[in-house]
């Protein structure tokens, strides 16, 4: 499988690249700087240089053409509104249209679990981030692509547990970025899961088993 990753150098994206390479897959992606491209080439990852916030759909389609799947793992991490709008809003919309134009049907979006951090007092920028992410989820769900929206809980660094909770609805807590990356890799290799929203949290089920347990939902 050849997968193109938007957000290739982010916390989830770079871990995902490693997971896919371990599967024997071909990994490509988008980076902002030539130095990043050169570093990734040493790992066997091919990268195109471009800025998601300024590229149009045709330019992005040219970069991703030939891939079997597109993963959108970019995000503003609830930063300033303008960045959220550019990356999580317009950036995702551009990626959806680019996938259509490039003939790349499989699209996995790493979104956010809407209830994450709700026990905290969230500022307006964070609330805006959640709202934009939801609009993006809807836009992808309304597309004709072979999509999956993955909504993880609060992301944390550190080693993955290798076990998760995954399903149409999950309680929120926190989940390691490493486990999110492994889950995305498993979803990419399970074509029977399509046109689904799946929520992800830490749990006790091995990741591969948790992914396969959702195949019946896809067929239902």
TrEMBL record:
Residues 9-191 form the NAD(P)-binding domain. SUPFAM superfamilies: NAD(P)-binding Rossmann-fold domains. Pfam families: NAD_binding_10 (PF13460). InterPro entries: NAD(P)-bd_dom (IPR016040), NAD(P)-bd_dom_sf (IPR036291). Gene3D superfamilies: NAD(P)-binding Rossmann-like Domain. This is SDR family oxidoreductase. It comes from Nocardioides nanhaiensis.
């Amino acid at each position: 499988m050849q997968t193109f990753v938007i957000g290739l150098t982010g916390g989830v994206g770079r871990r995902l690249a490693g997971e896919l390479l371990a599967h024997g897959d071909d990994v490509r992606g988008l980076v902002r700087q030539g130095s990043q491209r050169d570093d990734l080439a040493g790992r066997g990852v091919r990268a195109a240089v471009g800025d998601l916030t300024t590229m149009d759909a045709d330019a992005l389609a040219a970069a991703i053409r030939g891939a079997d799947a597109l993963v959108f793992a970019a995000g503003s991490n609830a930063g300033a509104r303008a960045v959220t709008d550019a990356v999580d809003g317009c950036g995702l919309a551009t990626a959806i249209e680019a996938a259509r134009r490039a003939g790349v049907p499989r699209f996995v979006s790493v979104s956010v679990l809407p209830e994450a951090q709700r026990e905290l007092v969230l500022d307006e920028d964070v609330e805006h981030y959640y709202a934009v992410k939801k609009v993006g989820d809807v836009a992808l769900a309304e597309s004709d692509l072979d999509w999956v929206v993955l909504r993880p809980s609060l992301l944390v660094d550190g080693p993955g547990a290798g076990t998760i909770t995954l399903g149409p609805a999950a309680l929120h807590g926190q989940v390691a970025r490493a486990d999110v990356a492994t889950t995305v890799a498993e979803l990419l290799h399970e074509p029977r899961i399509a046109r689904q929203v799946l929520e992800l949290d830490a749990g006790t089920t091995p990741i591969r088993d948790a992914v396969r347990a959702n195949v019946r939902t896809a067929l239902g």
